[in-house]
Fold this protein.
Amino acid sequence: MKNPPALEQLISALKVLPGVGPKTAQRMAFHLLQRDKQGADKLARALDMALTRLTHCQRCNTFSEAELCPICADEERRQDQLCIVEMPADLMMLEQAKCYEGLYFVLMGRISPLDHIGPKDLNLDKLLPRALDGKVSEVVIATNFTAEGEVTAHMLSELFKDRGLTLTRIARGMPVGGELEYVDLSTLAQAVYERRGVS
Ligand code: ZN
């Protein structure tokens, strides 16, 4: 016997989530429908609202409900530093660590051949004019210390070579394989303070 079409559709929709295969998707669907209808309703609404309201900040590319996110709109922040991170979660971590007063750019990913993500998918067409606006003098590369993050950092250092900007990478105090999102805040702050020039 087959599942009813609406259930099949829900299961197949849940499979878009990373790491969720057919079995897990089915379990999630049963859970939502059987045990947590209220949660399911909340999830549906939140997803709908996020899709309608959220866009990307025109300057830093992070998720925002307005043209400019609150950080980019804040004129008190240093306009001469631009920190490049992989994901909005990394930006949030750096903000929590209170170690950086400049602005950001969020790539929304990292180079990952296995996932077919190359430089083209990292919004570089938006990043380059942003970094070359004439106000930015230092570009801080704060991608993760994973293999993919390092490849991305290397690509960025090539991109910004000979463009008259100071190029730095957050320091290696971060554990090897370390992702910003999971490092404690003081280690992260130290990595920013001890950032080094990229030759
Ligand atoms: Zn922004």
